[in-house]
Amino acid sequence: MNDARSRLIVALDLPGRAEAMDAVERLAGRVGYFKIGLEIFVREGPGLVLEVLQRGERVFLDLKLHDIPNTVAGAVRSAGRLGVHMLTLHASGGRRMLEAARDAAASMPSPPMLLAVTALTSLSEDETRSIGVADAVEAWVGRLAGIACGAGLTGLVASPLEVAGLRRQYGDKLKIVTPGIRPAGAEAQDQTRTAEPGQAILAGADYLVVGRPILRAPDPGAAADLIVGQMENALRARAQLKS
Ligand code: C5P
Predict the structure, then answer these.
(1) Which listed site, 70, 113, 171, 173, has its alpha carbon 20 to 30 Å from 21?
(2) Going by CA atoms, what residue is nearest to atom 16 of ligand 1?
C-alpha cells in the first residue's frame, strides 16, 4: 500500500455490522485503517473488530478511554489482544493513567498506537469553565498535549486548525491524527474546524480521519482515491519543503 493510502483512516460511522462490512469490502486495500467508534462498538462488540481484522484490514478503535489507571491499563491490554492498531484515550485522565496505558501497551507483542484526545472539539469555553477548567481552551489543549507527550504516548487526535502549532511545538515526537477533513466543495455538515486533505497534510498531519465524504459518496472507492491523490501531492510538497 502506498504511503498516502496508509495514512487515510475511514470512520465506520454506520448503523450496524452489515453496512460496516459492506463499506470495508468496497474500501479494502484502498485505505489504511478503519475507525470503529463507540456507537457501533457498543452495538456490535468486539466481533466486528475481529471481522475487520480477519479481512486483513487495520483497525483504529476509538473508545476514548477515561478511568482509573488500573482499569484503563486492563482495557488497553484487552484491545491489544484483539489486535487493533490504534486506540484513543482522554489525556485529561492524567499522567498516571496515560503512563499505565503506555506500560500496558509496551507489555504486548504488537501493541496498538496510543492516541490522546485533548479537549473534545464539541466543548465551548463556557462549558470547560463550567466543569472547572481555569485555562482558556487553547491553553488547556496545549497543557494536555504536553502531558500526553511526557507520558510517552504515540500521538494525539487534533483538529486541522491545531496541527501546525502542535507540529511546531513537538516536532516529530508525536503522531498527529486529524478528523474534520472535507475535500474542496464538500459540505461541512456538523464539523466547524475543517480543512481539505492536502491542507491538513501540509500543516503536518500524519493521518487523516474521513467519514461522510467517503461513505456517503456515490462511489466511496473513487472518493477515497481522490482524497489519496490530494494527500500524495501534499506529501510530495511537504517533503520538498523539508529538504
Ligand atoms: O463524517 P466525518 O468525516 O465528519 O467523520 C469524522 C470522524 O472523526 C467521526 O467518527 C468523528 O466522531 C471523529 N472525530 C471528530 N472530531 C474529533 C474527534 C473525532 O470528528 N475531534
Answers:
(1) 113
(2) 179
Q: What pLDDT sits at residue 191?
A: 80
What sections of 12-68 are H helices per DSSP?
17-27, 38-44, 46-54
What letters, b where the CB count within 10 A reaches 16 and e where it falls short, cover 7-21?
Answer: bbbbbbbbeebeebb
**Cell 463507540, located at residue:** 38
Question: Span 3-242: which CATH code?
Answer: 3.20.20.70
Centre of ligand 1 to C-alpha 177, Å, is 11
The letter for the amino acid at 13 is D
pLDDT at 144: 96
* pLDDT at residue number 138: 85
Q: Is 186 in the pocket of ligand 1 (CB under 6 A)?
A: no
How is the chain split into domains, by residue range? 3-242
As given in the structure block, the three cell numbers for residue 178 are 486529524
The candidate with the shortest Cα–Cα distance to 87, out of 185, 184, 218, 175, is 175
